[in-house]
Amino acid sequence: MFKALGDPVRLRLFSAVASHEGGEACVCDISDVGVSQPTVSHHLKKLKEAGLLTSERRGTWVYYRVEPSVLAAMGRLLVLPAAA
Amino acid sequence: MFKALGDPVRLRLFSAVASHEGGEACVCDISDVGVSQPTVSHHLKKLKEAGLLTSERRGTWVYYRVEPSVLAAMGRLLVLPAAA
DNA sequence: CATCTATGTTGACATATGTCGAACCAGGCG
DNA sequence: CGCCTGGTTCGACATATGTCAACATAGATG
């Protein structure tokens, strides 16, 4: 999880998806992060493999959304040590 | 921050320091993570550069502790999007 | 001072990673 | 069917990263 978010481009992509209206974003909505479009696709794939995002094709476009369990998991991971 | 914790060895080291009695750990307490001692030192340096740990030499040993602001920062970073 | 233990630094090296261009699918549309 | 647009996969390449052995430093201690 940390490894997946370790790359600046992936962090931006993840953030863009997470903060996008409706909780989902088409690739075309978030693909202006300063790298070529194949690279965007590559990073989105990594994020998907890491279980942070899910993708769904609807017609021409592919929509990505944040896997809901992820933020909860990170919350548990970090809040507990902080309290201890 | 995510990049610093992206490496498994660093994540273990950070976790070991964070969960150690007294909030601090001597290098000798946490150096059995499966890599050589220079490598441990190297990763601890990275964690320090990333602002996640601080170090202090007391006599023969060097003690590492978690920078307090870090867990709070991560909490803010993740809890807010989760609520939104 | 000589020396021993605990850490840090350096240099070299193999591997992983990010990046791009080119080629390749998928679906809508004339 | 032919083509255009959105997206992914492939292959190649440069750079970053993790790792270790060897050497260097900091204190303690005799």
Descriptive account of the structure:
Two copies of one chain form a homodimer. The longest helix of chain A has 16 residues, at 68-83. The two termini of chain A are 22 Å apart. Chain A is globular, with a radius of gyration of 13 Å. The first copy, chain A, is 58% helix and 18% strand. A three-stranded antiparallel beta sheet of chain A has the order 1-3-2. Chain A has helices at residues 2-6, 8-18, 27-30, 37-49, 68-83; strands at residues 24-26, 53-58, 61-66. Chain A contains five helices and three strands, in the order H-H-E-H-H-E-E-H. Chain A has 84 residues and is an alpha+beta fold. The interface between A and B is medium-sized, with 18 and 18 residues. Chain A binds a DNA duplex (30 and 30 nucleotides) through helix 4.
Brief descriptors of the model:
DNA-binding; alpha+beta; 18% strand; homodimer
Radius of gyration of chain A: 13 Å
The end-to-end distance of chain A, rounded to whole angstroms, is: 22 Å
**Fold-level CATH name of chain A:** Arc Repressor Mutant, subunit A
Number of helices of chain A: 5
What level of helicity do the residues of chain A show?
55-70%
Largest sheet of chain A: 3 strands, antiparallel
Tally of domains of chain A: 1
Helix/strand order of chain A, N-terminal first: HHEHHEEH
Largest interface (CB < 8 Å)? A-B, 18 and 18 residues
Named CATH architecture of chain A: Orthogonal Bundle
Order of strands side by side in the largest beta sheet of chain A? 1-3-2
